[in-house]
Design brief:
single chain, mainly alpha, two-stranded antiparallel sheet, two-stranded antiparallel ribbon, 11 helices
Length: 325
């Protein structure tokens, strides 16, 4: 399915994102200290505010359905992206990235992954437009991912294994032994070398792309409009970097996050399967009627799941503290 927005709207949107990316880069270039909690909070509010303003514009100019699809897609992508922060924390610790360099590492890694996600989204949209049975594959994959996520043990998240790309970079690039502030290259003994930051950026970018294998099929379960899918992903990823500095230390308190995300993925997976069956003119399986799940119901389910997950996690933490006392 192709987007209903005009090429002019696409152009203005892309230019807007490029301006934001350039502004972010200018701020990073002038930063001489690690990101503070106050700075991270202001930037998170800025990006969430931008996403909210964009949603309002969609409601006003395109109607309730596209606006609701964007809100549901943005919340889903942002929620699934929070799970990425666990991996980011592990990668930063594994490579001993200095605090001053972490902002730049995340910035470049996320921008690279944003470009690669755009390719995946375009491919997914083309596949769905060509064959509706792709929904069966997406739905089954999301349900499989949900089960895997729900039964994942805590210690499985605490390990990071370098993938083939990262190992390949170590073999082919002249890598300096130490970091040099937040510089990507340095000169050692008269030889130009890259700093370990390049390897870390590759690790962050690849991790983001791997997570996209879950999140992109999920948002296709909420909308098939490439414009909404791309913008929801872009807004979620742009706000992810500062969220890392804001709640990185608090992630361990949301102990039921995996369960909540698994429930959301399973819900969207079943929604995709039901839509695929409807597309095949199957409205019931035996005596069981297959319902139409609208975007309002999907958004409500996602929000309720996140609220319950967070509340249950905080309640469990308080209970554990009381027992420890």
């Amino acid at each position: 399915m192709f987007s209903a927005v005009s090429p002019a709207v696409w152009t203005v949107t892309v230019i807007g994102f490029l301006v934001i990316v350039a502004l972010d880069l200018a701020v990073i270039a002038r930063r001489s200290a690690a990101v503070s909690i106050r700075q991270a909070t202001l930037w998170v509010l800025f990006y969430v505010g931008l996403a909210a303003a964009f949603a309002v514009a969609l409601f006003v100019f395109r109607g309730a359905t596209p606006g609701g699809e964007f809100v549901a897609g943005y919340i889903t992508e942002y929620s699934l992206s929070v799970d990425n922060l666990f991996v980011f924390v592990i990668i930063m610790a594994r490579f001993r990235v200095p605090a001053i360099a972490q902002d730049k590492v995340l910035y470049i890694g996320i921008v690279v992954s944003m470009l690669m996600r755009a390719v995946f989204i375009a491919a997914g949209a083309a596949a769905i437009a060509a064959a509706s049975w792709v929904f069966y594959i997406f739905g089954a994959f999301l349900i499989y991912t949900a089960v895997k996520l729900a039964i994942e043990k805590d210690d499985e998240q605490e390990e990071y294994q370098e993938n083939a790309v990262v190992r390949g970079l170590r073999r082919v690039l002249p890598i300096a032994p130490d970091y040099v502030g937040n510089a990507l290259t340095t000169r050692t003994a008269g030889r130009r070398m890259v700093t370990p930051m390049v390897v870390v950026i590759a690790a962050i970018g690849i991790a983001n792309v791997v997570f996209a294998l879950d999140s992109i099929p999920a948002i296709f379960g909420l909308t098939t409009d490439p414009y909404i899918i791309l913008t929801a992903n872009a807004f979620a990823l742009m706000g992810l970097r500062q969220l890392y500095f804001l709640i990185g230390g608090l992630l361990e308190r949301i102990i039921y996050l995996n369960i909540g995300l698994a429930v959301i993925l399973a819900f969207i997976g079943f929604k995709l399967l039901i839509e695929a069956l409807h597309g095949s003119h199957v409205d019931a399986i035996g005596p069981v009627h297959l319902p139409e799940i609208g975007i309002a119901a999907s958004l409500a389910f996602i929000l309720i799941t996140l609220v319950v997950t967070t509340a249950a996690s905080l309640a469990k933490n308080r209970l554990d503290l009381r027992r420890a006392d």
